[in-house]
Amino acid sequence: MGNRLSQIATRTGDDGTTGLGDGTRVSKDHLRVHAMGDVDELNSHLGVLLAEPLPQDVRELLVTIQHELFNLGGELSMPGFELLKTQAVARLDEALAHYNAQLPRLKEFILPAGTRSAALAHVARTVARRAERAVVALGQHEAVRDAARQYLNRLSDLLFVLARVLNRANLDGLGGDDVYWNSERLKRDDAGG
């Protein structure tokens, strides 16, 4: 494969536009650019998560997801093009079922907390939800394949589950379980009222 990026600072965006993969130029606040940016940010958060100690199977899964997110970003940058395969959504469904089966059922809401790796997974989860909203917004104005939206939806669910897995893995010694929300109802129940 040849050099794809021969020049980083092109100055072509100085006028507030950016080039899509098909060569068209759009405003930097275009819905498509928002969706691309949110997917890129999500991928970057996964890169930070991958810098943490992780179980090897989780690490391998996240690396695969990073490549798939890059495909999704490429697809978003080229209207009408397909890079993210539908099998990628099925792979997330399988991972979700696999990791969720290992966890105790939730009886209360949990906080995005615990180990550093779990907290980073929660941050990535919230960015995945934002990226999903951006893709939905884009889809209301332009054609977007269902797989793009579905992938981000499943990924946010998977990242929630992986946060719980990472708390239990406790690789930094600061976790061990979910961090439960201390709701007002729980306070009343504990106080006997």
TrEMBL record:
Task: Say which species the protein is native to.
Answer: Caldimonas aquatica
User: Per the UniProt record, which EC number(s) apply here?
Assistant: 2.5.1.-
Extract the PANTHER family matched here.
Answer: CORRINOID ADENOSYLTRANSFERASE, CORRINOID ADENOSYLTRANSFERASE MMAB
Q: Could you say which protein family the record assigns here?
A: Belongs to the Cob(I)alamin adenosyltransferase family.
Span of domain Cobalamin adenosyltransferase-like? 8-165
What name does the UniProt record give this protein?
Answer: Cobalamin adenosyltransferase
Q: Which Pfam families match?
A: Cob_adeno_trans
Q: What class of enzyme is it?
A: transferase
Q: Which UniProt keywords apply?
A: ATP-binding, Cobalamin biosynthesis, Nucleotide-binding, Transferase
Segment Disordered: which positions? Answer: 1-23
Query: Do the record's keywords include Nucleotide-binding?
Result: yes
Q: Which reaction does it catalyse?
A: 2 cob(II)alamin + AH2 + 2 ATP = 2 adenosylcob(III)alamin + 2 triphosphate + A + 2 H(+)
The source's superkingdom equals: Bacteria
Enumerate the GO terms in the molecular function aspect.
corrinoid adenosyltransferase activity
